[in-house]
Amino acid sequence: MKNTILTFKDLKKQHKKISMLTAYDYSTARLFDECNINGILIGDSLGMVIKGDEDTLGVTIDEVIYHTKAVKKGAKNALIVSDMPFLSYHISVEQAVLNAGRLVKEGGAHAVKLEGGAHVIKQIEAIVNAQIPVMGHLGLTPQSVNAFGGFKVQGKSEETVKKLIEDAKLIEKAGAFAVVLEGIPGKVAEMITDSISIPTIGIGAGKECDGQILVYQDMLGMFNDFVPKFVKQYANLGTVIKEAVGSYISEVQNGSFPEEKHTFSINEEELKKLY
Ligand code: KIV
Q1: Burial environment of residue 28 by CB neighbours within 10 A (0 to 12, 13 to 18, 19 or more)
Q2: Which residues are annotated as a binding site for Mg(2+)?
Q3: pLDDT tens digits, 134-149
Q4: Do the Cβ atoms of 161 and 191 come closer than 8 Å?
Q5: Are residues 227 and 152 in the same domain?
Q6: Which helix (H) or strand (E) holds 145?
Q7: Residue of 54, 94, 158, 182 marked catalytic
Q8: Ligand 1 contact via 203 beta carbon (within 6 Å)
Q9: Which member of 100, 149, 178, 209 lies 3.0 to 4.6 Å from 200 by CB, making a disulfide possible if both were Cys?
Q10: How many domains does the chain have?
Q11: Tell me: the pLDDT tens digits for 244-265?
Q12: Which atom number of ligand 1 is nearest to the Cα of residue 41?
């Protein structure tokens, strides 16, 4: 079943949970799509899990387009959402529409995601007016890491909770089809989820959100530099990969790989002609 923004709306209406994961390449996107994931995000988390940066700030629009193209070829049914990286929508509304358009035209995204509340409402409205579906993103928005003074849980005071609820309502009014809630208390995420009609997708925001998203390297146990409290590791692929690569190295070193069955043959007549 092909997922569209209408699928997301319907799932919330039917009180059915929405599943999303990040992906950045063809093979992974294809596997997730075969599992019937509702949506795939080409997140600017690629700065950390693909490029090895300390944060997401160095990611460029061209990098997101490159990874979106690969994911698009692998995912036939998931809704493909591409992240708008840092400074790709802050400078002007025109630039925001242009960059959102590039993610759709060049990358093949179905929708774009951008971080922030009141200060990016004009951008959200303009992108939606250009017929590009927008997913909002509130809470511990990683592009604000320096402004927050680190990756810190948000929405812990009355003032910030009120602001989060106001921002979520503004995002809905601006025409966004969904909003990611990241790194906020579960109760606060529940209040936001109950006060808007568009789906909320949580990451570190408890179980009351309309859906969940995780960075795939986190949930598959491939990125152990730092495992946040909200991550559940459904597999330990890091260990599986290390064991497999260790066996490969040993077999190459001791000559037991490749075997006859991995080797192409040539018939005797052809071989004689070579000598
Ligand atoms: O960049 C990303 O992967 C994200 C998700 C964690 C929501 O924004």
Answers
A1: buried
A2: 44, 83, 115
A3: 999 999 999 999 999 9
A4: yes
A5: yes
A6: helix 145-148
A7: 182
A8: yes
A9: 209
A10: 2
A11: 999 999 999 999 999 999 999 9
A12: 3
Shared domain check, 130 and 95: yes
- Separation of alpha carbons 232 and 250, rounded Å: 32
Asked if the model's pLDDT at residue 225 lies above 80, the reply is: no
Domain that holds residue 223: 5-235
Answer yes or no: do 268 and 210 share one domain. Answer: no
C-alpha span between 102 and 163 (Å, rounded): 31
Annotated binding site for 3-methyl-2-oxobutanoate: 44-45, 83, 113
Q: Are residues 82 and 147 in the same domain?
A: yes
Pick the residue whose CA is nearest to atom 8 on ligand 1: 43
Q: Is the CB of 123 under 6 A from ligand 1?
A: no
Ligand 1 centroid vs 36 CA: distance in angstroms?
20
pLDDT tens digits for range 162-172: 999 999 999 99
One domain, residues 211 and 268? no
- pTM of the shown model: 0.96
CA distances to 115, 163, 200 from 139, in Å: 9, 10, 12
Helix (H) or strand (E) holding 141: none
From the CB of 43, is ligand 1 less than 6 Å away?
yes
Query: What is the domain-level CATH number for residue 187?
Result: 3.20.20.60
Shared domain check, 252 and 181: no
**Is residue 182 annotated as a catalytic residue, yes or no?**
yes
Q: Is 115 in the pocket of ligand 1 (CB under 6 A)?
A: no
Judge if 186 and 245 occupy the same domain: no
